[in-house]
């Protein structure tokens, strides 16, 4: 992949860009194998490669400059804005949306936030692209002061950019590098962006997390579902379920599936997706994953965990170790925390593993493992 931003040295986010992609992928798998080397007998499935460019389904753009000449991209080490509208990681439909969005910023007079001066309104522009090339656009503002102007000019945006299905304002008032706040204000009648993959439609709401790489996420869900089908459990928990990707891929209309996620917004997405798919035996609960497990009177046959980078931690790992759960599917974005968690669950042995390259050109990757009690 060629990138002018990288060549000019103005953006080095793709730290591995000067390495051949085959080398990147091989190094990631080797890194993961080394971290899990204490566990013998793992069957390593072939690593899942990604497209080298155009794979990101979301743009998280810091907005700087002025309302007349907005800069959409990142901050350099000195705090100045770097425009990344032509970043080759973004697919063409996403890049094509930026001119109309910049025009809306001008017309609605959305003053970009000045970090040093602690003034201005528009902090971030968050844009998500679905497999059907529809868009969710979120404006992260310090206050609701520009809301009336945004509403006034929204019809012009929808006319210029008919791919926009969902638009919203997120209010983030604090003077900190926090991506978004708790309050979300919908600007469109539609509240969900359908993410279609593997025959399912996951209905993504504005504050719901979804994997950045849609194609690799689809492969991840397929792998987990295949392992679950082979284990043939009658009951499954999906802890840290997000918008329900694993849970809904594991639901077959026969087994009982429970998804647990602390974000109520993500649970609302999962429930809507379940209803759309007619998977009545899947239920979703807004709760802390560890607290839910520790309170439970019984345990399921199989548990799927997809925690943040810190891993599941000693409490949940201890519960799994003590439980009657026969299989665990552990999806991790940080193999180091995965290795720490596995060390506290000696009764649950990794039988199979697969690296999935969710983030080409960087050192990050996803690994999914199948654990079996015995």
CATH architecture of the largest domain: 3-Layer(aba) Sandwich
The largest sheet, given as strand count, sense and whether it forms a barrel, is: 8 strands, mixed
Calculate the mean pLDDT score and round it.
96
Radius of gyration: 22 Å
The level 1 CATH classification of the largest domain is Alpha Beta
Relative strand content: 25-35%
Proportion of helical residues: 25-40%
**Structure class:** alpha/beta
Number of strands: 17
The oligomeric status of these chains comes to single chain
What strand line-up does the widest sheet have? 1-16-17-15-14-11-12-13
Q: Report the total helices.
A: 11
Low-confidence sequence ranges: none
User: Could you say what the CATH topology of the largest domain is called?
Assistant: Rossmann fold
- Can you identify the CATH superfamily of the largest domain? Vaccinia Virus protein VP39
* Count of individual domains: 2
Shape, per Cα inertia axes: globular
What is the helix/strand order? HHEEEEHHEEHEEEEHEHEHEHEHEHEE
Distance N to C terminus? 45 Å
Could you give a quick summary of the protein structure above?
This protein is α/β, with parallel strands linked by helices.
């Amino acid at each position: 992949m060629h990138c002018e931003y990288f060549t000019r040295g103005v953006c080095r986010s793709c730290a591995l860009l000067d390495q051949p992609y085959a080398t990147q992928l091989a190094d990631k798998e080797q890194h993961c194998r080394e971290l899990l080397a204490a566990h013998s007998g793992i069957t390593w499935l072939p690593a899942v490669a990604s497209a080298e460019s155009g794979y990101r389904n979301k743009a998280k753009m810091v907005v700087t400059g002025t309302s007349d000449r907005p800069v959409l991209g990142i901050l350099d080490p000195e705090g100045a804005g770097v425009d990344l509208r032509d970043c080759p990681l973004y697919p063409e439909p996403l890049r094509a949306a930026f001119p109309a969005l910049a025009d809306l910023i001008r017309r609605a007079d959305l003053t970009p936030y000045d970090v040093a001066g602690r003034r201005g309104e528009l902090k971030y522009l968050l844009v998500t692209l679905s497999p059907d090339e529809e868009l969710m656009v979120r404006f992260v503002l310090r206050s609701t002061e520009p809301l009336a102007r945004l509403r006034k000019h929204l019809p012009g945006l929808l006319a210029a950019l008919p791919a926009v299905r969902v638009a919203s304002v997120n209010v983030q008032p604090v003077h900190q590098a926090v991506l978004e706040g708790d309050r979300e204000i919908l600007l469109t009648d539609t509240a969900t962006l359908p993410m279609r993959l593997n025959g399912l439609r996951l209905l993504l709401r504005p504050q719901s997390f979804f994997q950045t790489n849609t194609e690799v996420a689809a492969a991840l869900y397929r792998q987990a579902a295949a392992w679950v089908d082979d284990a043939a459990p009658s009951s499954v928990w999906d802890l840290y379920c997000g918008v329900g990707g694993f849970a809904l891929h594991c639901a077959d209309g026969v087994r009982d599936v429970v998804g647990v996620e602390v974000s109520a917004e993500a649970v609302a997405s999962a429930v809507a997706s379940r209803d759309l798919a007619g998977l009545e035996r899947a239920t979703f609960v807004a709760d802390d994953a560890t607290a839910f497990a520790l309170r439970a009177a019984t345990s399921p046959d199989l548990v799927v965990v997809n925690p943040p980078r810190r891993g599941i931690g000693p409490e949940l790992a201890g519960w799994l170790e003590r439980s009657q759960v026969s299989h665990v599917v552990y999806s991790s974005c940080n193999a180091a925390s995965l290795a720490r968690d596995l060390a506290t669950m000696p009764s649950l042995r990794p039988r199979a593993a697969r690296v999935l390259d969710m983030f080409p050109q960087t050192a990050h990757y996803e690994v999914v493992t199948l654990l079996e009690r015995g």
